[in-house]
Design a protein that fits this description.
With 405 residues, the chain is an alpha/beta fold. It has two domains: 274 residues, Mur-like, catalytic domain (UDP-N-acetylmuramoyl-L-alanine:D-glutamate ligase, 3-Layer(aba) Sandwich), CATH 3.40.1190.10; 122 residues, Mur ligase, C-terminal domain (Protein-Tyrosine Phosphatase, Chain A, Alpha-Beta Complex). It has 17 helices and 14 strands. The strands form two sheets. An eight-stranded mixed β-sheet has the order 4-3-2-5-1-6-7-8, with helices on both faces. Strand 9 and strand 10 form a beta hairpin. The longest helix is centred in the middle third of the chain and has 17 residues. It is globular, with a radius of gyration of 21 Å.
Length: 405
């Protein structure tokens, strides 16, 4: 198989949460353990930092990777989902793995994996761990895909764990209360392994109890009085909390012997995009008119993004938005202002909320807007109607943002 055929195999023949949603979620680590056994347990051959959370875990992972790179460490980075290219998920010193590495891995192990019936995500985790071991990275920054306790990445024995925050997302799989969701995220905490909680979101006791059971040192960042004055090239206001969590993670890493000078932390935070090629986090795509793309897609994330948009005090706002069908769209839409221009659209993935469904929901809620079958048509119309002093905001879903990058 060539690269395209290999991706088609991974995307179409195997369950893939990014495209299919809940039906692809597996509440079991058995497959990942079986795959890694075939690979001679690569997860045991590199050091790592494991990250979970409702919002901010991707940005935090990229920040930490950038800092370790600036400190001179060969750094692996595993994140999900990807926006444009599958290989965004697996990077070494900011560079995506090669197409040949993907093709060769699937070709080499397809016959051995076939009886295990791994999901898309399990294939991808196995590939990432294999690459990090083969490339002999000094450290790998690993972001959970969904939840924590039963996430495929949760077979690593990390140096540190970081949990960013807790919010209401993926409730059909993680639980209907913050306490239940916190319990799933806390599942990444390992015995005798420091854990940093950026924001316990009112569920301090859940994390504290888990850490106590495992004799793991715990740091609650939102209870620390220490001022963190570092800035980042990731400019969303929600990054302030991520920066604090990352900073205290670095302090714990120093205690373990990692050489992370303050200058490396400073440079790492200021050069996240340059060092890791992160896209879609309050990203300015153009000026005059101002066009912003942001992947915030749940209630907590969108509240912060929309607050920042409001603070810009521009003229009319133009929203290019679409959603996935397993999202509580009415709850999310009520966050958006009614006095704006809307360009509702449908991304080109099976999980996208059909435009006719979005039309019914938005009109029922009193929104007036334009409706498009594609993201590109909506984006083109928004830019055409937007005046120089106004703003185009693109978001609501990773898939919507991906199609205009």
């Amino acid at each position: 198989m060539n690269y395209k055929q290999t991706l088609d195999y991974l995307f179409k023949q195997l369950p893939m949460y990014q495209r299919q949603g809940k039906s692809a979620y597996k509440k079991d680590l058995t497959n990942t353990l079986a795959l890694c056994k075939i690979l001679n347990n690569p997860q045991q051959k590199f050091k790592s930092i494991h990250i979970a959370g409702t919002n901010g875990k991707g940005s935090s992972a990229h920040m930490l990777a950038s800092i370790f790179q600036e400190a001179g460490y060969k750094t692996g980075l595993y994140t999900s989902p990807h926006l444009k290219d599958f290989r965004e998920r697996i990077r070494i010193n900011g560079e995506m793995i090669s197409e040949n590495q993907v093709v060769d891995f699937v070709s080499d192990y397809e016959d051995q994996f076939v009886n295990i019936h791994p999901s898309f995500f399990e294939w991808t985790v196995a590939l990432a761990f294999h690459c990090f071991a083969i490339e002999e990275v000094d450290i790998a920054i690993i972001e959970t895909g969904l939840g924590g306790r039963l996430d495929s990445t949760n077979i690593v024995q990390p140096e540190l764990c970081l949990i960013t925050n807790i919010g209401f997302d993926h409730m059909d799989m993680l639980g209907n209360t913050l306490k239940e969701i916190a319990g799933e995220k806390a599942g990444i905490i390992k015995a005798n392994t420091p854990v940093i909680i950026s924001n316990h979101s009112g569920e301090r006791q859940v994390f504290e109890q888990k850490a106590k059971e495992l004799d793991s040192p715990i740091v609650f960042v939102n209870e620390m009085n220490r001022t963190v004055s570092y800035e980042s090239d990731l400019t969303g206001i929600y990054q302030k909390e991520n920066i604090r969590g990352v900073y205290f993670t670095c302090l714990e890493a120093k205690k373990l012997g990692w050489n992370l000078p303050n200058e490396a932390i400073k440079r790492g935070l200021l050069n996240v995009v340059k060092n890791t090629n992160l896209r879609g986090r309050w990203e300015t795509l153009q000026k005059n008119p101002f066009v912003i793309a942001d992947t915030a897609h749940n209630k907590e994330g969108l509240q912060l993004a929309l607050s920042q948009l409001e603070a810009l005090q521009a003229g009319q706002n133009h929203f290019v938005i679409g959603f996935v069908k397993d999202k509580n769209v009415e709850e999310v839409l009520q966050l958006f202002p009614k006095n704006a221009e809307y360009y509702f659209c449908q991304a080109e993935v099976s999980r996208a909320l059909p435009i006719n469904d979005l039309r019914l929901i938005s009109k029922k809620m009193g929104f007036k807007g334009h409706y498009f079958n594609t993201v590109k048509e909506a984006f083109k119309a928004a830019k055409s109607n937007c005046q120089e002093a106004e703003i185009v905001y693109v978001g609501g879903s990773n898939f919507v943002v991906a199609e205009i990058l």
